[in-house]
Amino acid sequence: MNPDFENLAESVRKGRKDSAREIAGKLLESENPADILNAILSAMADIGARFKAGEIFVPEVLVAARAMNSVLEVLEPVLVKSGLQPKHCVVIGTVFGDLHDIGKNLVAMMLRGANFKVVDLGVNVSADKFVSAARDNNADIVALSALLTTTMPSMGSIVEAFRKSGVQAKIIVGGAPVSQEFADKIGADGYSKDAASAADLCKRLVA
Ligand code: B1M
Hints:
The chain has helices spanning 3-14, 17-28, 33-52, 58-81, 102-113, 127-137, 153-165, 180-186, 195-206; strands at 89-94, 117-120, 141-145, 170-174, 190-191. The two termini are 29 Å apart. The chain has 2 domains: 3-82, Methyltransferase, Methionine Synthase (B12-binding Domains), Chain A, domain 1, CATH 1.10.1240; 89-206, Cobalamin-binding domain (Rossmann fold, 3-Layer(aba) Sandwich). 43% of the residues are buried. The protein has 9 helices and 5 strands. The site of CO-5-methoxybenzimidazolylcobamide has 27 residues, from helix 5, strand 3, strand 4 and helix 9.
């Protein structure tokens, strides 16, 4: 196998965005873009697993995700041409009244790393906005983040708004004060405690 694949994966894992981008550009001259995509996705999967295991922390994940994104910029036009775009879409946002977005951004990065199309609605997002974005993007999954005990109840209102609207997306919830028990109580389709588990959960939900 071309040793540049391992160099690319290592550059992503170490967050070396310029070298990752340069190696990807070189690989694109002779290699299949799907193999290049798989190399960076598997590097991000390693990062997710090490983050989950507590071996690395938020800054390392952020720099790895930045390196991954810089490769995706080069790769995306080629992938679109060859029909290798993501098959599944996740709409994500922090619920109404809540401005915390660091954890939500990490979840979005892990999802992109797992080859999902991610529509990030940002923070302070109303139920109506979640429903219309899910409808407009034909989303498979809607991921809600809340960091405040006072904003957790809006997750329940969002689940209700979806059930009333008839939009069929699965709804998953997360954030420091949220638990599996709370997710069950409001009728969400899933809960995950961290960004790597959120990507695993989404993969299971669309499998
Ligand atoms: Co705020 N804040 N904050 N804050 N803040 C907390 C959450 C708090 C616990 C601090 C404390 O008192 N000890 C407390 C909440 C108490 C409670 O409700 N029980 C609190 C408070 C009270 C407030 C204000 C009300 C303070 C005030 O103004 N009086 C205010 C509220 C503003 C608002 O939102 N309306 C406020 C404001 C802020 C800042 C703006 C200053 C800033 C946010 C900046 C930003 O996000 N851009 C901030 C911060 C930074 C924090 C702490 C210190 C750190 C949060 C964080 O980013 N953690 C936090 C205390 C703490 O947690 N130690 C605190 C790192 C991040 C990677 O973890 O977000 O948990 P986390 O995400 C994890 C998982 O939870 C999970 O995956 C992520 C990665 O593994 N996850 C998901 C998250 N979302 C998910 C969605 C999913 C799945 C998994 O979808 C399925």
